[in-house]
Amino acid sequence: MIIRPEGLPGNIRREADVAIIGSGAGGGPVAKELAEAGYSVVVLEEGGHFTREDFDFSPGKAFTRLYRDASQTVTLGLPAIVVPQGKTVGGTTTINSGTCLRVPRHVLKRWHLECGLKDLTEDELNLLYGAVEEYLFVKRADPEVVGKNNLVFLDAAEKLGYSGGFLPRNAKDCEGYGVCAYGCPSGAKQSVNVSYIPDAVAAGADVYTRCRVERIVVHNGKATGVRGRFLDPATGRKTHHMEVEASVVVLAGGAVQTPSLLMHNRICLASGRVGKNLSIHPCGAAFALMDEPIGNPKGIPQSAYVDEFAAEGIMLEGVTLLPAVMAITLPWGGRRHAETMWKYPYIASFGSMISEHDSAGKVAAGPSARQPLTFYNMGRGDLERMKRSVLLMAEIWFAAGARRVYTPIEGFKELAGARDVSKLARTHLKRASVYGLSAYHPMGTCSMGADPYNSVVKSSGETWELENLFICDASILPTSLGVNPQLTIMALAMRTAGFIDDRLSEGSFEKQSAGRLERLRARLRREKESKAQRLSAEEPTSV
Amino acid sequence: MRDYFAGRLRRLAPVFIEPVEGLPPADPDGVVEFSREFLRAGTPAFRILFYAMILVLQALCLVTRGKSVYSLPPDEADEFIQSLYSHRISALSTIPTVLGTPIYMSHYNRDDMQAPLGFDIAAMREEAAKRGVQR
Asked: Which of A259, A334, A374, A533 could bridge A445 with an S-S bond, Cβ 3.0-4.6 Å?
């Protein structure tokens, strides 16, 4: 069941096979897999539990309830970048756009060659991806509901000869309300809070909400449990104690919180890699003033992409903004702000995502475990890529008939046409000249690898240093993916659950490695057959 | 939020939010209420930065314009805010960005503000509530 702190009588002490810290893209799938395999599972989530009835199209409320630190997490460095992260049951999947992309082949190849992760084969990953995609109803966004904004942009990109299309998403019967980032109000988006967690709970898992884990208990080189505190929902103050004694501990707090917890517990630090190697996807945006209303925000915000420049590390992905979010994104204020907002129905938008090449970041221990410091400096090359992405979006918007294009670049906040575009192209940017930059998908701070001196976890997800401590979130991804990571985190979580199953059934990894895959294949086959039988039984018989 | 900062924020809201015909005016109390919640849920660092920015904005206006930002005529206040937004020193352009975040968010988050902008939030809420997709 899902347990809120309000009704708890006092301190809680539990015993379980598995204690999972975090209920997002990593923690959710592990909880479901292991609970369904018959293990007792306790999930500890720092955020609150909300259902679709609580999601009311309000970014203001969503920021304060569903986002970590009301979305005020900013990197220290140049330029300062806002990195929004979820803090609720379902983690960031509750507030993401639902895009589901597999790891690009060249990235996987790099993991094989540079990180020695040869046992993470393409065949195995494809099997896992297939299972996750089927479970989450992943399919390409329906052109009927992607919204005019995305259609106009794609059309213009096509005219310019750029390749693109509609993104695969984990949504079932999506009507395109345009508010994925504030909690899906219809339940169409198959985020972890409406998929993995309910199924884990149905299989017997207990999810404690508003419970912040502070300590990972270690005995004789093994993780044996966790300790934490419940938080008062109104004040955020610490209340009762929580202690779970467990055979296996799974850390799935995300690429910022996970290394922070390890650092504050002073564990797994021997490789010197905890918190290092932070990669994010810096994102830019270009708004366009069109002649006709663009129908904002109706439509699936992130439903279209242009991948013509993916080899350069630039991915253009759709974005539509509600008035409140557009209002804080505009690079000016006062009268000009009011006049621009008045034209909201005519303002189209699109975003870009940069796969880093020469930027560097790290997570360092902050004043407390919950306040890690995130350092990030954008490299010159990536800054140029960011500028190029804005130029490309401007080119496409002008090809679509835009009267003006608004950019986040100081000195070029408003482009009137091709002349301004080429002037911007010739300009050498400073890192401080990009306004209101945001980035998503923090990764890599507890990276997976084959070398214990250069990585934090093995390919199974278990830490090199502590037995029975597994990490299962974006922090283990060894390099930037260049695409949205949730599908890969879920696939790897499913894989890690298989290894934990082996561990709990007292077999060695080496002995059971082949058996684990065979078991997975057989299970997926059985699930497929039973689903087909169920569907055929539900079909009306023809007369 | 201390009363002093709440009072300053209340007076700052109309400086950031220009009245536009056809749209509801600024609601300073709503801005303060939302900012209180936004800052409470956020990081201590942002809270400190926010309060510091209010003080810096006041001081900067006194030094450069010889008047309090709250007593500047609307045109001059607007020009002052714009000049900060596009200031080449990023520490200065950060001031209106930080202060504008909760002010603009609370203003444009209002249902009565979104409807004239073509986003009928009440109708959308009703429609979504009826749908309820089952897995």
From this structure: A259
Q: Exposed (0-12), middle (13-18) or buried (19+): which is A219, by Cβ within 10 Å? A: exposed
Q: Which of B82, B118, B129 sits opposite A334 (nearest CB)?
A: B82
Q: Which residue of B has its CA nearest to A194?
A: B135
Same domain for A360 and A285? yes
Predicted TM-score (pTM) of the model is 0.94
User: A116 and A230: one domain?
Assistant: yes
Write the Ramachandran bin of B5: left for phi over 0, alpha for psi from -120 to 50, otherwise beta: alpha
What is the H or E stretch that residue B127 is in? helix B121-131
Residue range of the domain that includes A267: 1-49+88-96+101-135+191-277+444-543
Give the pLDDT confidence of A152-195 residue by residue, as tens digits.
999 999 999 999 999 999 999 999 999 999 999 999 999 999 99
Minimum Cα–Cα distance from B111: chain A residue: A58
Nearest residue of B to residue A411, measured between CA atoms: B86
Residue ending a domain, among A389, A414, A442, is A442
Cα separation, A182 vs A196, whole angstroms = 19
Distance in angstroms (rounded) separating the CA atoms of residues A372 and A275: 10
User: Are A249 and A119 contained in the same domain?
Assistant: yes
ipTM: 0.95
Beta-sheet pairing, A238-251 with A222-231: antiparallel
Which distant-in-sequence residues (6+ apart) come within 8 Å of A193 by Cβ?
A: A23, A28, A49, A50, A51, A88, A89, A90, A93, A94
The pLDDT of residue B22 is 85
Contact residues on chain A for B17, CB-CB shorter than 8 A: 338
Looking at the structure of chain A, the number of domains it has is 2
Residue A37, both tokens: 């395999």
> Residue A186 and residue B104: Cβ atoms within 8 Å?
no
Domain boundary among A418, A442, A466: A442
Specify whether A353 is located in the same domain as A310: yes
**How many angstroms separate the CA atoms of A151 and A313, rounded?**
23
Looking at the structure, do residues A313 and A422 belong to the same domain, yes or no?
A: yes
Contacts of B113 in chain A (CB under 8 A): 323
A residues 170..209 contacting B (CB < 8 A): 172-173, 175, 177, 185-188, 190, 194-195, 198
pLDDT digits 0-9 by tens, A296-329: 888 999 999 999 999 999 999 999 999 999 999 9
A 415-474 residues inside an 8 A Cβ radius of B: 432, 435-436
Cα angle vertex A67, ends A345, B96, to 5°? 60
User: Do A262 and A289 share a structural domain?
Assistant: no
A324/B105 CB distance under 8 A = yes
Bridge partners of A248? A18
Distance CA A100, CA B89 (A): 40
- The CATH code of the domain that includes A16 is 3.50.50.60
Q: Cis (ω within 30 of 0) for the bond into A79?
A: yes
Which residues of A form the catalytic set? 441
**Do the domain assignments include residue A172?**
yes
Q: Decide if A338 and B129 are in contact by the 8 Å CB cutoff.
A: no
Judge whether A260 lies within some domain.
Answer: yes
CATH number of the domain where residue A410 is located: 3.30.410
Same domain, A417 and A353: yes
Same domain (yes/no): A309, A169: yes
